[in-house]
């Protein structure tokens, strides 16, 4: 938990309203201390920057700065995709605004961590990185005013690629509100070149459904039992949603029903009649709660379900594990921290000021050796860093 005696050590907030593609405004909130030196790019296991470095592979694909870089497996050709949020053509935030989401791909991933991730090509193909979805920022695209559409997770199965996203209307919402307009699922049948939106959207805060538990999703994957398991929570990509409460729910759906957009076919993990059970009779129950949580990720790695998330109050990327998605989860374990001097359970942990994100790479070496993709931004427009970094060998 955060320490009230050290207000300068509270976590920063994420970037705010994009100014018509030209940059970002400074987020309200405390940014105590100075930015520590960036980890060495040679230390692939402990914070290798994947963009905003001179001559790096991201810049070669037309992306200078970006965050999130949500990794997913492209099963059709055995390659890897990385879905970025708000992205820019040049290092720092002074370049052309590319949009959100943006995708870079990698032909082969080294799970050992001896070689950091290197991007091989951008999507859509030809002409370098650019926005995947066809919509306008700071405009009404038929659903009401949208600042940006932020990706939360991506998965490919059965020849179709899916991105779950949140449409943001207010980046700095009033206390107790999340600022979302809606959440939705977009899909691509040509592996990321063109995208379509499912007609059903989950209404958000500015449509009168504040704190919707369907705001942010993570696709845990298709289990050997044949179900696609999905974890979801309230939108808190701004890290300002004080009503988030760390609440996470779980549902599952048959892959063919998901592909058809028949989202009403989901089964919910709920506490009903004195016991936990799968049911369609009621909505999912909260399975985890606690500190406010920003970005999160759940993946099945080597038969173990692994979870990571940005704990906004603790100012750290935490992990948990479970043998099954509907089993009891282990206690949270801080792995990468914004401040390694406080609180005491941060001592000795890798330190990355102004961190957030923390996505599990589905190609991780194993359930005791995860690769995490962590974002960093110091809150200053047109200044570095605004990037993602790779951490390997994380034991949850």
UniProtKB/TrEMBL annotation:
Keyword entries, A-Z: Signal
Domain DUF4185: 54-391
Signal peptide: 1-36
InterPro entries associated with the record: DUF4185 (IPR025442), TAT_signal (IPR006311)
Name assigned to this protein: DUF4185 domain-containing protein
């Amino acid at each position: 938990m955060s320490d009230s005696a050290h207000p300068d050590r509270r976590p920063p907030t994420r970037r705010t309203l994009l100014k018509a593609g030209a940059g970002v405004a400074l987020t309200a909130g405390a940014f105590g201390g100075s930015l520590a030196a960036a980890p060495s790019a040679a230390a692939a296991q402990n914070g290798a920057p994947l963009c905003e470095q001179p001559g790096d592979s991201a810049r070669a694909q037309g992306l200078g700065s970006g965050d999130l870089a949500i990794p997913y497996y492209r099963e059709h050709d055995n390659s890897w995709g990385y879905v970025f949020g708000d992205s820019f053509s040049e290092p720092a935030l002074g370049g052309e605004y590319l949009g959100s989401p943006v995708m870079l791909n990698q032909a082969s991933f080294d799970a050992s961590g001896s070689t950091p991730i290197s991007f091989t090509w951008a999507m859509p193909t030809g002409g370098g990185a650019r926005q995947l979805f066809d919509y306008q920022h700071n405009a009404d695209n038929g659903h009401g005013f949208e600042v940006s559409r932020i990706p939360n997770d991506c998965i490919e199965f059965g020849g179709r690629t899916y991105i779950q996203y949140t449409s943001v209307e207010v980046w700095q919402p009033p206390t107790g509100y999340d600022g979302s307009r809606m959440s939705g699922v977009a899909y691509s049948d040509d592996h990321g070149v063109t995208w379509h939106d499912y007609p059903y959207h989950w209404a958000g805060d500015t449509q009168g459904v504040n704190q919707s538990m369907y705001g942010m999703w993570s696709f845990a994957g298709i289990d050997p039992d044949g179900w696609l398991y999905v974890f979801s929570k309230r939108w808190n990509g701004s890290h300002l949603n004080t009503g988030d409460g760390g609440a996470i729910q779980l549902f599952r759906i048959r892959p063919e029903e998901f592909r058809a957009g028949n989202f009403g076919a989901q089964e919910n993990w709920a506490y009903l009649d004195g016991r936990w059970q799968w049911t369609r009779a009621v909505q999912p129950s909260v399975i985890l709660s606690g500190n406010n949580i920003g970005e999160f990720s759940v993946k099945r790695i080597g038969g173990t379900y692994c979870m990571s998330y940005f704990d906004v109050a603790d100012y750290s990327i935490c992990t948990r594990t479970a043998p099954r998605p509907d089993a009891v989860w282990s206690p949270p374990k801080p792995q990468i921290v914004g401040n390694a001097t406080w609180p005491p359970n941060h001592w000795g942990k890798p330190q990355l000021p102004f961190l957030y994100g923390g996505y599990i790479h589905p190609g991780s070496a194993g359930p005791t050796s995860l690769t995490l993709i962590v974002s960093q931004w110091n809150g200053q427009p047109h200044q570095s860093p605004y990037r993602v970094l790779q951490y390997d060998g994380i034991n949850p």
